[in-house]
Specification:
This protein is of the alpha+beta class. The protein is 20% helix and 27% strand. One of its GO terms (molecular function) is heat shock protein binding.
Length: 210
């Protein structure tokens, strides 16, 4: 019968005075902290291979935390930005938080809600190819919940001049001569007088004769 030597375990060498730590094996199992380089643009669940001494390798699986501000789609990122009603109508600029720096974004006049603005090259670095993704901004118009008397008068005067209203506007009626406000607000009359002084003089004379 043939069997492996119980002392040398087939290595053909016997350690007479074995080490108490490795018990003569020559190696020990130890815990060691290593610094792992995180590649730019790494995605959630992606595994990266790292070389170690003695021709060993370490496989690291990354778990990327979610952001409360950015939404990721591959190398592209998405954010929502709220603008005022006047910015949506007249245009302007707004400062947006970016990945690497704050960005000043141009708002075009007549911007609709949920319109998207694409900033090329402002996204995440692509891991498997060259370049960067894009930063897509979704515009959301913030409608004021409360209006002052003057603000309401301005909107009412605008409603009188609007020609494509789908339905009716509260406080504005359609007559044979056009739309007219029924609130009787002095501010509305003053705005109307500035926009159309001829009709204002006629309406003022009618009030005096009445």
């Amino acid at each position: 019968m043939r069997s492996t030597c119980r002392k040398c375990h087939g290595t053909k060498t016997v350690v007479k005075d074995p080490c108490n730590v490795c018990e003569g094996r020559g190696t020990t199992v130890q815990r060691k902290k290593v610094t792992v380089p995180v590649p730019a643009g790494v995605e959630d669940g992606q595994t990266v291979r790292m070389s170690l001494p003695n021709k060993k390798e370490l496989f690291i699986k990354f778990k990327v935390a979610r952001s409360n501000y950015f939404r990721r789609d591959g190398a592209d990122i998405h954010t929502d930005v709220a603008i005022s009603l006047s910015q949506a109508l007249l245009g302007g600029t707004i400062k947006v938080k970016g990945l690497y720096e704050d960005l000043v974004v141009k708002i075009a006049p007549g911007t609709s809600s949920h319109a998207k603005i694409r900033l090329e090259g402002k996204g995440i670095k692509r891991v498997s190819s060259y370049g960067y993704g894009d930063h897509l901004i979704t515009i959301k118009i913030k409608i004021p919940q409360k209006l002052s008397q003057k603000q309401k008068a301005l909107i009412t005067a605008f409603a009188e001049l609007e020609t494509d209203t789908p339905g009716t506007v509260e406080g504005v009626v359609l007559t044979n001569e056009g739309k007219i406000a029924t609130t009787g607000d002095d501010y509305v009359y003053q705005i109307r007088a500035v926009l159309n002084p001829v009709d204002s003089d006629v309406e003022s004379s009618k009030k005096k004769n009445a």
